[in-house]
Amino acid sequence: MGMDMNMGMGMDMSSDSAAFVDTNSSMARSYWYIIAAVLGFTALLRIFKIAETRSRLRLAKLRAVSHPTQPRNALTQAFATGSAILREIAGPKYHINNRWISWLSPPSLGRSLIVVIYMSVILYMLLWHSITFDAYYYEKVAFRAAWVSVTQVPFVYLLASKASLIGLLSGSSHERINWLHRWVSRTLLVTVTVHGGFFYAEWYRADLVEVELQMMTMVKYGIGAWSILAWTFLTSLTPIRSFSYELFVLQHIAAAAVFLWLLWMHVPDYAQYNIWFAIAALAFDKLAMYAWTAWTNAPTPHPASRGSTSRSGLSKFLGHRASIRAV
């Protein structure tokens, strides 16, 4: 299940083949180019929406026009029309009306389209120039699946962060994009399964399964990483997650940390930058949340009030106040 190993069949795969490395690393870069392009486009839409909202509020305050919310030019008209179309597409949702399996209801149409597009991109990256029925067929698919898998890992951790660049650029909270975190994680489980499955198929055909498990330590770490992913998938299902949410959170955090360690032990040096990327996302998330909590809760003196005021702008008083109205 390793990305870089001696296959024991008369050929040295320690270099992962120059053609494999060049093509697969280029594919990994393309993945992040696509993510960056989508986030950039989303950020531009958000900036335009903020500017348009402020313009409408200013016109309403000045009473310069009778209908400030009405589009005033072709650009704002196109934006309003596009937003309305997307809202209509995103809304429909099929719900299974059964108390035992209602949790199997698919996402809304909009979310389903996003998932289908993402999985289509992953499938294209997995298959492009890797399906050639020659002596290297199993290796090519296995190596490609390895690169596609490890490249997705930082994105999974970014989507799980409460304070991340994704939320900042898209203007979405952690709660609103957590569903995407789950689906990207499920896609990761599929590609990791393909990675290990094709290597196993090659070893089985050559009767080398036991040899690989005994000689290649990294294979055992890879199996462990896959097991953590499978465990995370099972425990994230609604019936199990809702049984004890606090326990789910604790084991989920522990599993995320153990997974990164197993992955670090499994992947070769030239792919470990993905693990560092994921660790950086986790560290930034925790530091940002601690800093934000400290900043918003730090009391500052307010001359016009008897109490103190937090930096969030909310006054704090001792005790409780009640408003009573007699009718």
Could you walk me through the main structural features you see in this protein, from its secondary elements to its overall organization?
- This protein is mostly helical.
- The chain has a domain at about 105-295.
- Helices cover about 65% and strands about 0% of the residues.
- The chain contains eleven helices and three strands, in the order αααααααααααβββ.
- Strands 1-2-3 form a three-stranded antiparallel sheet.
- β1 and β2 form a beta hairpin.
- α1 runs parallel beside α4, α3 packs antiparallel against α4 and α4 packs antiparallel against α6 (about 175-205).
- The chain is globular.
Describe what is shown at a glance.
The chain has 327 residues and is mainly α. Helix content is 67%, strand content 2%.
Mean pLDDT: 81
Biggest beta sheet summary: 3 strands, antiparallel
Roughly how many Å is the radius of gyration? 26 Å
* Count of distinct strands: 3
Structural class: mainly alpha
Layout of SSEs?
Elements (H helix, E strand, L loop, with lengths): L17 H45 L11 H17 L18 H19 L9 H24 L4 H6 L3 H32 L3 H7 L1 H19 L2 H4 L3 H22 L6 H25 L1 E3 L6 E3 L4 E2 L11
Keywords:
single chain, three-stranded antiparallel sheet, 327 residues, mainly alpha, disordered N terminus
